[in-house]
Design goal:
Arc Repressor Mutant, subunit A
Length: 285
């Protein structure tokens, strides 16, 4: 609940204590799973290097050979996709989802698909979530199915509120950002501004978590960017190199750098560290 709510610092403390406790008692089968979740929590705090170190430790630990492996694999795929130095990709989460499907672990397949959808708006992930969610009896599955099917600003507003009501505050913020974009595309500036405000409030409420899914503008002044500038700024703030951004967007490295130059000029900042701080409203790690 702490992880999915975006409360990285609290999750990091709780999971760290659990990993130490089980490690001291040679409960190695649980340690891999706990280290993987700890890596995910550490990433939420903005500590990319620490998250990658913990992810490496988790990979070196013994597999549990039970359902915990699927959740550990999901967390590790998320950390690698977000902090591995390349532009975020759905490939890792989709591979985890496929393995869970082959094992008949549908809830873990659903969670991995949700990560893939959050990262890149993967059409495959969206289609599979909509088809899979009704077969799983849980309130969360219903929510994720509804979220994947939502398209309009109004639908996304409703999903964001439902996430918030259920305690998934980070997902509420992410979905509200999507709602704001949908409203803006439809020319509904007032509704977009309201959705942006809700997104920012929820982001603040869960402790300003770091996530590439919230790399869209969340601080005053970023609304002046064009859609392409905001897209490039979000990817750069998430740690992607200019070359990785160019490959993902199908543009040249020079174009990426030119766009970043315009972003820096509009925001009155001097580089990527300042950009990350501006995008996330916090001091960059």
């Amino acid at each position: 609940a702490l992880l999915f709510g975006g409360r990285g610092a609290e999750a990091r403390a709780t999971l760290g204590e659990a990993a130490d406790w089980y490690g001291a008692r040679d409960q190695r089968m649980r340690v891999r799973w706990l280290l993987a979740l700890l890596a995910e929590a550490t990433l939420l705090t903005g500590d990319h290097a620490g998250a990658l170190v913990l992810a490496d430790e988790a990979r070196a630990a013994d597999r549990a050979h039970n359902l915990a492996d699927h959740d550990a694999d999901r967390a590790l795929a998320w950390v690698q996709a977000c902090a591995g130095g390349a532009a975020p990709s759905a490939a890792g989460p989709l591979a985890v989802a496929n393995a869970a499907r082959e094992a008949g672990a549908r809830p873990f397949e659903l969670l991995a698909l949700w990560d893939a959808l959050r990262l890149t708006a993967s059409k495959e992930a969206r289609r599979r979530i909509v088809g899979l969610a009704p077969s799983i009896t849980s309130p969360l599955a219903v929510l994720l199915g509804t979220a994947a099917a939502a398209r309009t600003g109004g639908e996304l507003d409703a999903v964001a509120q439902a996430f918030a009501n259920a305690g998934f505050t980070q997902w509420a913020a992410e979905t509200a950002r999507q709602a704001a974009r949908a409203h803006r595309d439809d020319g509904r500036r007032s509704a977009a501004a309201q959705a942006d405000a809700r997104a920012h409030a929820w982001w603040e409420a869960c402790g300003r978590p770091w996530s590439p899914t919230l790399a869209a503008p969340v601080a005053d002044g970023l609304g002046e960017l064009t859609a392409r500038e905001a897209e490039v700024a979000g990817l750069a703030a998430g740690g992607a190199t200019s070359r990785a951004i160019a490959e993902q967007l199908g543009i040249s490295v020079r174009t990426v750098d030119n766009l970043l130059g315009k972003v820096y000029l509009k925001l009155g900042i001097g580089g990527r560290d300042a950009l990350r701080a501006a995008v996330h409203g916090r001091t960059a790690p």
